[in-house]
Amino acid sequence: MSTLIYLGLGSNQDRNHHLGLALDFLAALLVDVQCSAVYSSAAAGCVGDDFFNLVLSGRTDLSLGQLSDVLKRFEARYARVPAPRIVLPVDIDILLYGDFVGVYEHGVLPRPDLIDRPYVMMPLAVLAPEGVHPVTGKTYKATWLEFERYMPAEVKPVLVASDGLITHQVAKAAWTDDFVMAQTLKSLRLRQGLTQRKLAEKARVTHSSISVIEKNQASPGVNTLDKILSALSTSLPEFFAEIERGGEEVNC
Known about the structure:
The chain is 46% helix and 18% strand. The protein is an alpha+beta fold. Strands 1, 2, 3, 4, 5 and 8 form a 6-stranded antiparallel β-sheet that branches. Strand 6 (102-104) and strand 7 (107-109) form a beta hairpin. The two termini are 35 Å apart.
């Protein structure tokens, strides 16, 4: 059963480009993706250029640990520069993972930003106003309105792009990355000298499943993808790293 998650995205270097890369990646990783508008805000707790931030929701069959590992691997490709000014090309934080409350390898959930960071609180309140914080029991809209009442106007995030623009970008990215996923699987198969039928036998899936996935006529569920990648001796993080690179060109 898939889990509803919320992610916070930010960038303060070549912001449109890097957020676009992150959205492309997440559109391939998640399903039912929805985005808030994009907001600009000053760097918090550090010296650096202003950030573009947004909140994204989606569903995943990945465990919390798997999701965190995949996101950290993606972030590592765009490493931050800590001095003399903070330069952060891509930052993706897990804000919520279903109803999970507690400590995990990379932090605590719900992420504390949900109640004390305007650049997270405002877009979340817009995206999921009636969502309820699993600890405080307050809606995200009520939490934001209460916080905003005492917040200086100059630190309030400023709207940059409407959700319509982001939704269009995500929809376009989802189609593009489904194609790249299909081509990447095909490339991995051919590199190992496997026919579709032989791969299907190793993965214990039907031959038709492999065929329609490689033709981009269907997207594999995580369970099917796990079986195929196991047969190809490729981990999920390695596979998504391949997708980021665009896969290798395949001649049919």
